[in-house]
Structures are given as structure tokens and as C-alpha cells.
Amino acid sequence: MDERRRALFRDWMRRLFLAVGMTGIMAGPVTAGFTEGELLSGACGGCHGHTGVSRAASMPSIAGFDRRYLARVMREFSTGVRYSTIMGRVMKGYTPQQINLLASYYADQSWENFPAGPRDPALFVTGQRLHQALCEECHEQGGRYQDRDMPRVAGQAPDYLLMQLFARRDRPEGMQQPARMRRALEGLSDHELRALGHYIASQD
Ligand code: HEC
Ligand code: HEC
Fold this sequence. Notes:
This protein is 53% helix and 2% strand. It has helices at residues 3-21, 36-40, 45-48, 67-79, 87-91, 96-107, 121-134, 140-143, 158-170, 179-185, 190-201, and strands spanning 29-31, 34-35.
């Protein structure tokens, strides 16, 4: 290495250490191919899976959701206005900037369906009928549709889906959901919620 290249290399190393030392404060791309959002996501992967594709039936996948949905939901967890078992505690202390970086990181990842278990034909048909009558107007394409207000539900982790459906029916006060969804869930039996969960989770 000649003197000039050695100097450039030293300068690059200095910047690298500076940048790594400042993660959590600085925005934007950091080093060695890691963006800051990716570094922050290290705190989430144990539950949501590496890149946000969950491997646990009770943990939601979050890969590929709309960035604005992700950012809103994280803000709601961090301020405590959104019902949660865990996320309220997890998101405490994250700055709005870190929340935006995390939201952008997960929005850029690719969704993968949770591997569906064996299909129960009778339960599936009941779920399909209910979904078409009550849910499809918003959760279009069997729940594959998503936008800034609404996550994809098709192929989501099955126990998480059930947990959400029961919580949204039984404790609707603390839940963020449109009045039409709340009304749709009211009066559904446990069996009907299971059928809906089974149908939605079984989508490809
Ligand atoms: C200890 C496990 C755990 C960790 C760590 C964790 N989460 Fe979660 N996350 C959950 C659970 C469980 C839920 C469902 C809400 C609840 O009950 O808390 C959830 C829900 C979410 C949701 C909403 C999903 C949806 O479909 O609406 C987002 C977004 C999210 N987490 C992002 C994150 C991010 C970003 C991190 C890292 C900073 C993180 N989570 C760390 C367990 C975890
Ligand atoms: C009027 C539109 C609308 C209708 C009708 C509706 N939903 Fe939703 N749903 C939403 C929106 C918007 C959200 C996201 C709300 C939030 O958490 O901020 C949501 C959230 C959900 C979630 C939670 C997803 C997650 O990742 O946390 C599930 C599960 C769900 N809906 C299932 C259903 C089912 C099943 C039906 C029919 C019985 C239904 N919804 C009817 C609009 C609707």
C-alpha cells in the first residue's frame, strides 16, 4: 500500500468507528452494509424473526407492512395508547427518529406466510363465508390487502391472529379498530372466531 492509500484507509477506519459509536444518535446508512434500522432491528428479531418474518405462532410477522402503519403502531405502543401484552414495554424509550428507521427497515423486507398447518375443510368453509360477509370489504383478497391504515392478515402467525380476534371482540375499548370492524366481531361465537382465524391463516 502506498502512503496515500494508507492515509485513505486510516481515514475510512476512523469514520467507521465514529459511525458505529454514534449508532442510536445518527440517521442514515452506517457501515459495512448495515443500515441503522437494521442495527436497531437486532432488538426485535428474537420475537419477530430475522427480517420480521416470524417463526413463532404467537408472534406477528411484520415484514413488508406499510411504513406508515408500522410507524403509527410503534408510536401507539411507545405512548401506551395501544393495547399490548409486551410491546408497550419494548417500545419505551425509542425516539420518534428510531421508530421511523425501524418502520422503514421492516417496510423494505419481504413478507412470507407463516407455514399453514393442515386445513380443516369444515372450519375453512365457515371462515370463508364469514370473511366474505363481514371482513372482505376492508381485508380484501382474503386478507392479503394492506395499506397505511391496515396490515396484511392473510398468512399471519395463527396464534397471534386468534389472540387479536378474541381481544378485539372481548375488550374492544382499548383496541384501535374501525367501528365497522368492532360491530362485525360483536356477537361472533368463539367457534366463528376460530373459523375466521383458520381461514385467514390458511391463505397463500
Ligand atoms: C419479547 C418479544 C418481542 C420483542 C422483543 C418485540 N416484539 Fe413486537 N410484538 C410482540 C408481540 C407479542 C406483539 C403483539 C402485541 C402485544 O401483545 O404486545 C408485537 C407486535 C408488534 C407490532 C404490531 C404488529 C401488527 O400486526 O400490528 C409491531 C409493528 C412490532 N411488534 C414491532 C416490533 C419492533 C420494531 C421491535 C424491536 C424494537 C419489537 N417489536 C420487539 C413481541 C415482541
Ligand atoms: C371497516 C374496515 C374493516 C372491517 C369491516 C374489518 N376490519 Fe379488521 N382491521 C381493519 C383495520 C383498519 C385494522 C387495523 C387497525 C389497527 O390495529 O390500527 C384491522 C385489524 C385487524 C386485525 C389485526 C391485525 C394485526 O396484525 O394486528 C385482524 C386480525 C383483523 N382486523 C381481522 C378482521 C376480521 C376477521 C374481520 C371480519 C370479522 C375484520 N377484521 C373486519 C379494518 C377492518
